[in-house]
Write a structure and sequence with these properties.
Layout lengths: L1 E5 L4 H12 L5 E5 L1 H10 L5 H13 L4 E4 L5 H6 L1 H4 L3 E3 L2 H10 L2 E6 L2 H18 L4 E6 L3 H6 L3 H13 L6 E4 L6 H5 L6 E2 L2 H13 L12
Parallel strand pairs: 1-2, 1-3, 3-4, 5-6, 5-7, 7-8
Length: 222
């Protein structure tokens, strides 16, 4: 079983659909806590460290063989708390960051929330150092996007993010900093590659769960 830590319930059907399409048979257990993001925005991500540790320990106690944190704002905190869980803890945007580094040195990060921009840029820098590649990361806040998301206007949210992506020309790759921004990837008409985190993150987390020393089996194996 793979546990997922979300800060919005909108992610639940998204990851269920990705599981059904690419990882059938993988059992997902969703934990949703919007207050983690609210507090992290008010007080900084480190303020929710103890709360995240409690979630991770609970997930492991319930049988999770890995945990995927789908919130970019608190992803680094979740990753650093992995030792308290006793199982692998992954942040959804790390595989996306690695893919961005491989795509080219000019990376533009689009975020609907200011609190996601710095952690995402830092992660891309970390992956660039790991790969031994130079990168230049620019961050852009998509004005008005988050208010649409909070109002439940998912169509408007995706539209303004896609429009922001289409306005980017001087980049080798565009990174959508939040999992909730993923629908904009299909709407964007830019020739610049646009990366979103959910599918890449789930694939890495599924692999971690299957590779767990605790005996989780890939569906169809004995």
């Amino acid at each position: 079983m793979l546990a997922l830590l979300h800060t919005s319930s909108v992610h639940v059907p998204v990851f269920d659909a990705l599981r059904d399409a690419a990882h059938p048979g993988l059992v997902l257990r969703h934990h949703v806590d919007a207050e983690l993001l609210d507090r992290a925005r008010r007080e900084g991500p480190q303020a929710v460290t103890d709360a995240i540790r409690a979630v991770l320990r609970k997930a492991a106690a319930e049988g999770a063989r890995a945990v995927l944190c789908t919130c970019s704002t608190i992803g680094a905190v979740a990753e650093s708390a992995a030792g308290d869980a006793g199982v692998p803890v992954l942040r959804v945007d790390r595989p996306m960051a690695a893919a961005a580094v491989a795509a080219g040195p000019r990376v533009v990060v689009l975020g609907a929330l200011r609190s996601t921009l710095e952690p995402t840029a830092a992660l891309i820098g970390e992956e660039a150092r790991r790969a031994g590649r130079p990168v230049e990361v620019r961050t852009l806040l998509v004005d008005g996007a988050w208010s649409r998301f909070e109002a439940g206007d998912t169509e408007g949210f995706a539209r303004v993010v896609a429009e922001a992506a289409d306005a980017v020309t001087d980049a080798d790759v565009i990174v959508l900093a939040q999992a909730s921004m993923a629908p904009a990837r299909e709407r964007a008409g830019t020739a610049v590659p646009v990366l979103a985190s959910p599918a890449l993150g789930l694939a890495a987390a599924a692999e971690a769960a299957y590779a767990s020393p605790f005996g989780v089996r890939r569906p169809g194996t004995r």
